[in-house]
Give the backbone structure.
Amino acid sequence: MRFRSGARSVRTCLEIVVTLSAVAGCAPAPDHTSRTVDYFRQHAQERAQVLSHCSDNPGDNAREPDCVNAREAERIEGVGSLRSLPPMGLPSKPNQGAQR
């Protein structure tokens, strides 16, 4: 059986495309599992490690889910609410007797 000229190269190209598609389809899916803010609130050491990793290269890592969640957990755990801070011991009224 005779094929037209160029049919052999088309068949070769199709074989390559099918083979590459099969290989790409069998590749494992990337792991996009990120840890939650609550997880980072409970695990201070891991939060510190992730924050160190994120601050080392903020241009590439700033928008990673773990970086965002670790920053939010640090914001919550760092100072917390202003209402929960102890009193600073400042005088309630300014000293009216002192003049400059």
Notes: The first helix runs from residue 7 to 26. Residues 11 and 75 are 60 Å apart (CA to CA). The helical segments are 7-26, 37-42, 44-56, 58-61, 65-78.
